[in-house]
Amino acid sequence: MQGLFIEYVFLILIILSLVMLANKLRLAYPIVLVLGGLALSFTDQFSKILIDPDLIFFLFLPPLLYEASWQISWKEFWRWRRIITSFAFPIVILTSCVIALVSHALIPGFTLALGFLLGGIISPPDAISASTIMRQVNAPKLLVSIAEGESLLNDASSLIVFRFALVAVITGQFQFQQAITSFGLVVFMGIGIGLLVAFIFYGIHRWLPTTPSIEIVLTLVTPYCMYYAAEHFHFSGVLAVVSGGLLLSSKRQHMLTYLSRIQGVTVWTNLVFVLNGFVFLLIGLQLPSVVQQLGDVSLPDAIGYGLAISLVLMAARLLCTYGAVLFTKFASHFITVADANPGWKGPLILGWAGMRGVVSLAAALSIPLVVGAGQPFPHRSLILFITFIVILMTLVFQGLTLPWLIKKIDLNERDNALLEQQQELLIQQKIAQTSLQFLDMGDNGLLTNEHIANLHERLQIDLRLLNHELTETDTIRTDAILTFQRTYLDVLQQQRNTLNELNHQPEVDEELIRKYLSLIDIEEFKVREKLVQELG
């Protein structure tokens, strides 16, 4: 047990080193982690680490989905709901059909049922890679929103297709009407269970005497409860986590205290970082076991099948993406759509951002070894190998070329008339105006309080500066503001130095020193966030 623990400690250190290397090379860290895992798979110490499908589905997937549902903008999700749902359901199903037909024609002895099984496994893209790359190159936010929204739903649809195809392979029967009914039941009941569990936890947060520590632990437990409750009744645990997470995310200001929100962001950011690191490193580490399980199929043939299906998968997603564009243009004549003329650049990026990830590999590994009366599951080893090749091809090839593609076609923001910096200034202006109005409408005696009068004067100065910045035409932020921010950071460092000197005095309580050091950290965070916006 101690040896296993030490092994995973080394893996965490390797993950940190590879992520730092990715930052140095300005590459998306999932790509570097997968390649690093491939390299480690040839070493004796790490070559025997295998992915347990239950570990991925029941330990990793719920918190990753839950955190993604908290991060996504519900406003943007609802605005692009038609595009997101088309990527998450019809395109996943169409892709599965294409893969089923191609694999059936390409691979000897590969039935249509096995083709649909393979299609359900490799159809859902991995959004972590796509969103990481898009954010690195400052891609338009509408594309990031669509990619992240798609990721919340496509795992559910693909796993449902996988489930029905697996039953068809095992039983040799497939009833279309029953499958459609079951599909709807799995989807809607999964959503319903997720919402029910979310309301229960909302009540716990809202009305029970919790503390920030209790509330943060509750947020860690919530996605597992949602997932297990839905899967226990054989409904979609993915949709349960997503629907429940979206609901609780919209209620965060009412059910969590300010301290829980601040501390919770730090806890969840680090947790998801470690989980994602393990996930992508484990993908690379599976190469030896995947190759060993090939059996009778020769390695060159298996590689050929994997490369061919990878190319078909990329082409199918691109064609489906432009098909969605044509449908949007057609539908705009009858209903109101978010963007009646998406153009060709945005769909090209979304179509190319189809890297596959660990959900696909975990689904392939979850295929049973035997069917019926103890007979080996047909082509299980080949399905697993093709899945690995598809993940490697899409993640590395598409992942490395996506930043170049985004820069090459020079796609600008199309859906928002205001620059992000202008929006930020308008938000600050509105906050200052509202604050001043609140103070002016209050008790007249309030302004006789020196502290409140000082606050009122500071708000007036801030509002005056903001109004001046918004009327400038050549630049949003002046050099004077940047100089102020940098000088303020120097002042904060001087305050830290003073506190550290005070801490050497025996009559000063060190807990108070730490308290004020923490307050300075928060103040520096506020200043640096604005400075990053300027220099970014």
What can be said about this structure in brief?
The chain is mainly α and 536 residues long. It has helices at residues 2-25, 29-40, 53-71, 74-79, 81-88, 90-106, 112-122, 127-136, 141-171, 176-207, 212-232, 237-250, 252-255, 258-285, 287-292, 299-331, 345-352, 358-365, 380-409, 420-441, 450-471, 479-502, 510-535, and strands spanning 370-371, 375-376.
Secondary-structure class: mainly alpha
Radius of gyration: 27 Å
Q: Biggest sheet, in brief?
A: 2 strands, antiparallel
The best one-word shape is globular
Distance between the first and last residues' Cα: 47 Å
Q: Number of DSSP helices?
A: 23
Oligomeric category: single chain
Give the strand order of the largest sheet, numbering strands 1, 2, ... along the chain. Answer: 1-2
Series of secondary-structure elements, N-terminal to C-terminal: HHHHHHHHHHHHHHHHHHEEHHHHH
Tell me what portion of residues adopts beta-strand conformation: under 5%
Mean pLDDT across all residues, rounded? 84
Number of strand elements: 2
Low-pLDDT windows of residues: none
- Helical content (DSSP H or I, runs of 4+): over 70%
